Amino acid sequence: MKGLIDIKDKETKSERINLHLTPTAKSIIADKASALGMNMTAYITACAIVKDVYVIGDKKMFNELVYQVKRIGGNINQLRMLSQLERIECVDLRDCTAELDNIRKTLNTIIRKANKWQR
Fold it and tell me: Which one, out of 13, 23, 47, 113, has a CA that is 20 to 30 A from the CA of 71?
């Protein structure tokens, strides 16, 4: 059995499957794909091939979350810099920085998995 094609591999979509559905079934599939930010081909392919389908959900809210995490990182770096310049006395930020790094890694994993199928 042929394995999944990695996102780096650019294989031409040359094969077709003709699928006959009721209008209701087609509408349900289209709605589910749209809700996930996917076209019907990507949705059906992901459902048929992928063991686990990772969905970001509301992309606008997810992008806002990523933006806010980046801002928190920027704020921590500003605090660190002000502390090094001795303009403020700062507590140890290592735990906070480590936790933020864990959040970034988790977000990057989600983004990589979602980008594989959500186009």
Answer: 113
